[in-house]
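Q: Here's a chain of 310 amino acids. Please give me its 3D structure as tokens.
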Amino acid sequence: MRGTRIGYFGPAGTFTEQALLSQPDLSALVHVPFRTVPDVLDAVTAGEVDHGFVPIENSIEGTVNFTQDALVFDHDLLIQRETVLDIEHCLVAPRGATLAGLRTVLSIPVASAQCHAYLRRELPAAEVRAANSTAEAARQTSEAADPTVAAVAPRIAAERYGLEVLASDIADHPGNQTRFVLVGREWIPAPTGHDRTALVVFQRADEPGSLISILQEFAARRINLSHLLSRPTKRGGLGDYCFVMYADGHVADELMADAMRELRAKQGSVKFLGSYPAAGAQATSAREHADARWRDADDWIAALRERIER
């Protein structure tokens, strides 16, 4: 790691901090909590911290749009790592509280929505109130010291604020995961062989076939797109969209670099969001075979060019 200070979406006790602490090298840095994701990214851009650590995608809610849009439109930062965390929502309360005695539940609206069935079934009379984050909900619950008040929060927040876990894993859907990204100002991590490249492509015009022409650059090179989404550019009217795509591979790979060259030449405006180690299991060998074929074809062209008269 370059630098010693890392900002994250706080306060202490968020899922973001839990994911941050799961990375040994990142956990050894100086941690600086910020109230919002834009605050984290602003601090990285201004040089107040060396890196930022923020959520970008959830397996149930989808893309965290305020993070994605900030990286696309508001900052020139590079994604340098991704981390996937299994999300466990817990119902936490002051010591001595009981389910039967709860009257108020605090949490961020996204978390309470993901636990809607549990809350409706077990606490039908409780009032659900919004907080800025799950950790903030736990902190407010701790400060209230009221056995009728509880929070939907991570287990780490209960530990941070001296609360008891009344019920664990209360989300409506199993397999809830969140992807977090580490962002920095300049450097690109070296390729590992299991990498992901994030790009934003601004189409020249809204016309038939514009998206397929972009996708063909990846399909022709056997590059898998793990995530594709469209976002309004915020600079025009309805129909003015850009495409955010996450592709398997690294800018150091010849095939990926070739696809990026073609996109920039044909589409005009392409923003590079980073090439970085991918989380999870290794990808299939399809891209490796495509790389080998590309190298063979490149050697063939080079051999032909050597025969040109000089």
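Q: Can you summarize the key feature?
A: The chain has a mean pLDDT of 90.
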